[in-house]
Amino acid sequence: MTDSNEDYVYDEESGEWMPASELEERERTITRVEVRDAVGNLLADGDQVTLIKDLDVKGAGQTLKRGTLIKSIRLTGDGQEIDCKFDGIKGLVLRAEFVRKR
């Protein structure tokens, strides 16, 4: 039974409005994709990683050097891609095979 004062949110998957707590519970039960770095360490949202090789960033005209620290990564749901923030580069997505967990 849901509380009559509970917030409802739109679920894009089902196309229905549902109580926020119900949607949150359903998302929690969905199996998460495991993302592992170059040496096999399990990565999670908020981890810090270090680049293991120089990477040319397409569209930014920059090269990220080996050893560069990337803070607060976010998993994308893809088994090999992580979303990152880095000064001067918007929308940076790195392959997990090029990073090592710090």
UniProtKB/TrEMBL annotation:
Source domain of life: Bacteria
Domain spans labelled Protein YjdM C-terminal: 35-101
Bias (Acidic residues): 1-15
SUPFAM superfamilies in the record: Prokaryotic SH3-related domain (SSF82057)
Chain positions covered by the region annotation Disordered: 1-23
InterPro entries for the chain: YjdM_C
Protein name: PhnA protein
Species whose genome carries this gene: Sphingobium yanoikuyae
Lineage: Bacteria, Pseudomonadati, Pseudomonadota, Alphaproteobacteria, Sphingomonadales
